[in-house]
Amino acid sequence: MASNFSLLNPSSDENEPKRDPELSPPGDATTAQPLDDETLERNRQLVERYADELYDAPAERIFEWTKQHAPGPVVITMSMENTVLAELAKDHLPGADLLFLDTEYHFPETLEVARDVEKRYPDNHLLRVTATLSREEQDEVYGKNLYRSNPTACCRMRKVEPLQRALSPYVGVIDGLRRADGPTRAQAPALSLNKTGRLKISPIITWSLEDTEAFIAERDLIVHPLTRQGYPSIGCATCTLPVAEGQDPRAGRWAGSAKTECGLHT
After folding, report:
1. Measured between alpha carbons, how far is 182 from 71 in angstroms, rounded to an integer?
2. For position 184, what pLDDT does the model report?
3. C-alpha span between 260 and 185 (Å, rounded)
4. From the annotation, which residues make up the binding site for [4Fe-4S] cluster?
């Protein structure tokens, strides 16, 4: 694939971008396939009716609401920072797909957690979603270390767009968003619509880090080892640093830059 880009736009400098990072790989869908009008309207009505009711609802209630009201299959996204959603899905949405975005920049420990999830939750199939271009192809097309030169473009091509494409079979997506994770999430709803009209459901939205840790201990869940080494929020290894006690849990994400979100929740 990368060699095709080289032929279309040759460059004498292998580190010089051959394509503007604001442009995704040609031919790629950048969003999910549209829902039918009936499902779109049903989702809109559900959010209008239940968003306030679920705003501070417990996780179990939100999962049960999803089972009762979602007008089709939903998928559960997992960063593998913790496995709380997989455990809740086992109890409340057995058979629902789990989705892991493998950016190819993850810590080895994150990939190990993903393997452990597959073993522990065999009834909830784990989908591994990757970007169109490999790391090496991305370096060739957009220049080396895009995560440094344009982290927003890197996140878009390796997280946001792959997720959107993967959502096509589903009417909704469950995520692990928590209001306690930082000021940009402090007022986030438990139920809303994403940009394609799919249900966006956040069952642990009211949980604190302490609530999360208590649930992990109570259920003896798989533990990401880096969460015990000063990493309360874990993304790609290239863009995540440990944080000091008392800091914003997401202070180690894109440290030294103004970036605070990858785009999955905005």
Report:
1. 32
2. 87
3. 10
4. 154-155, 236, 239
Alpha-carbon distance 97 to 40, whole Å? 21
pTM, rounded to two decimals:
0.87
Q: How far apart are CA 253 and CA 232, in angstroms?
A: 10
Specify the CATH class of 59-266 in words.
alpha beta
* Overall average pLDDT of the 248-259 stretch: 65
Strands lying side by side in the sheet with 172-174: 126-129, 97-101, 74-78, 172-174, 199-201, 191-193
SS (H, E, C) 63-86: HHHHHHHCCCCEEEEECCCECHHH
The strand pair at 97-101 and 74-78 is best described as: parallel
Binding-site residues sit at 154-155, 236, 239
pLDDT digits (tens, 9 = 90+) for 172-187: 999 999 999 888 889 9
Largest Cα–Cα distance of the chain, in whole Å? 59
Q: Which residues are catalytic?
A: 262
Cβ contacts of 202 within 8 Å, gap of 6 or more = 62, 174, 175, 176, 177, 178, 188, 189, 190, 191
Across the strands, what pairs with 126? 98
Q: Which two tokens stand for residue 186?
A: 């402090």
Q: Residue 73 is which amino acid?
A: P
Tell me the per-residue pLDDT of 124-173, one tens digit each, with 9 for 90 and over.
999 999 999 999 999 999 999 999 999 999 999 999 999 999 999 999 99
